[in-house]
Amino acid sequence: MADPMTDSSTDADTEDKDLGFPHNQLQATVGSDGSDKSRDQKTLRRLAQNREAARKSRLRKKAYVQQLESSRMKLTQLEQELQRARQQGIFISSSGDQSQSAGGNGALAFDVEYSRWLEEHNRRISELRGAVSSHAGDGELRMIVEGVATHYDEIFRIKGDAAKADVFHILSGMWKTPAERCFLWLGGFRSSELLKLLINQLEPLTEQQSLAINNLQQSSQQAEDALSQGMEALQQSLAETLAGSLAPSGSSGNVANYMGQMAMAMGKLGTLDGFIRQADNLRQQTLQQMHRILTTRQSARALLAISDYFSRLRALSSLWLARPRE
Prior knowledge:
Blueprint: H1 4-19, H2 23-87, H3 102-133, H4 138-165, H5 167-172, H6 178-182, H7 191-199, H8 207-243, H9 252-269, H10 272-293, H11 296-321
Helix pairs in contact: 2-9, 3-4, 3-11, 4-10, 4-11, 7-8, 8-9, 8-10
């Protein structure tokens, strides 16, 4: 006879099996529900993080677009300024000192004009030398001397026009021979040094003439020193301006800053022709003052000495260029 307890246990097991929910599966189902809730929370957090990242990305993109637009406006303004500068004969080229501009044509035109001036100058000097050698009268000699002095005024005018087109050509002295360039100062000769060379050539001088020549030499030296200091200050300022743009490139902000610095540097370079003009004014005034201090025959000797000095520099250049090379 079966045990009632045994039968009851058997029936309960049979009932569980018939329902298809074993005891261990019920425990697994409860654990699965907890795991699903954990995954849902992680997913929600990720979604929230993604939404925040997307929002920040949109803000960054908006700020970047605004920065680009601001930089574009600045670049447009700078391009307009550069265009105005180009119309004035100032050019920027990616090839550095091989820039092609209207200034190149100006340099070529100046070289041609200077060659013609020098040819005419040599003719006038030859005429003056003949008049001195033949002991021409004071009236005739005065006319020739004044003609040579006036012809010097012409080269200063030509140089002034050329400096507006290509100031670097005049400043570098590429229109001069190599030996002449060794003594070049702001596109020409130093008046004070020339006066030193002339003093021994003009003897005898009266005491008043000697004093006047010495005063002229000293005032010329002071003016030259002031111009040299001004040029040094300009070069220092220009170097500092260019150094201010030495930053890693790539961003639109750096591009705008670079263009701004270059525009400032171009503005400073625009003052170079002023230095050339002042230096030539000093040279011209020195020659005129010298002419007033000296007699006509002394002025003739001075002009011949100046011409002979530069002729010897040109001859030295020719000999140097033609020297044998090992």
